[in-house]
Amino acid sequence: MNHTGLGQVITADSSRVSYEEEEAQSDFNLKERYNYLVRSKVEETQLWKLGLNDVGFDFGRFRYGIYLIYERKLRTSFSVLGELNPTAQPGYRYIYDPNTNIGGLEKTRYLNLGAQIAGRYYYNLNKRIRKGKSANNFSADYLSASIKTNGAYIPRNTHNNTYSGGDPKEYLVEVPQFSVRYGLQRRLGRYGFVDGNLGLATDMIFLARYPRQYYSWRSAIYGVGEFRIGLALGK
């Protein structure tokens, strides 16, 4: 009997088993680290969120703001969410001095306030809880229905002022926006979160200009998407 050959076979089998065990252990460690990062095993039924990534470019001007969000569980799979979204946008207003007959542009800042109420259905959370993969929390995929409104006061084309009696103003208001979306939300450690979704929305936009009175309504159905990342505090 070739003991050396037998010994080599045993060594090869042992090495393969050892490698497979190490690989399985490595996969387990990665999953555990991910679960720890997104706090999948931590129960939370209320979540305060501060989104810090509201930046954009509307009407030819840079816009920036924050998201103030509160989400609360009604049942394990259902939650209600409220959001306020204040933003600021630099702009100009036309200044005219009748004593000197001199006019000019003055830089100013215009404010915008959005609000949203939404219901969310975390459709696979109960199954994950039964399998021991999650606790009752907000780190899960969801379906959402929301109503959103946005009020803004933004003057446009003030540098091309052709109206008599002052500078033209334009109000833009979405009244309201309805949407359905699919999304996912994950906690990022103890004090962070990320939330993204895609869906369809419809709204009606009211536009009014002064001093020439002009009104128009329009409605549309279109694709929408949102992405939030920022700070969070849950309990």
Assess the beta-strand content as a share of residues. over 45%
Q: Would you identify the regions where 5 or more consecutive residues have pLDDT less than 50? A: 5-10, 156-168, 208-214
Order of helices and strands: HEEEEHEEEE
- Gross morphology is elongated
Give the averaged pLDDT, no decimals: 76
**Total helical segments:** 2
Distance between the termini: 68 Å
Give the radius of gyration.
Answer: 28 Å
Q: Write out the strand line-up for the largest beta sheet, numbering strands in chain order.
A: 1-2-3-4-5-6-7-8
Number-wise, the strands total 8
Structural class: alpha+beta
Percentage of residues in helical conformation: 10-25%
Largest sheet: 8 strands, antiparallel, barrel
What does this molecule look like?
With 235 residues, this protein is α+β, with helices and mostly antiparallel strands. Helix content is 18%, strand content 59%. The chain has helices at residues 3-38, 125-130; strands spanning 46-58, 61-73, 78-97, 102-121, 140-153, 169-187, 192-210, 214-234. Strands 1-2-3-4-5-6-7-8 form an eight-stranded antiparallel barrel. The longest helix is centred in the first third of the chain and has 36 residues, at 3-38. It is elongated, with a radius of gyration of 28 Å. The termini are far apart.
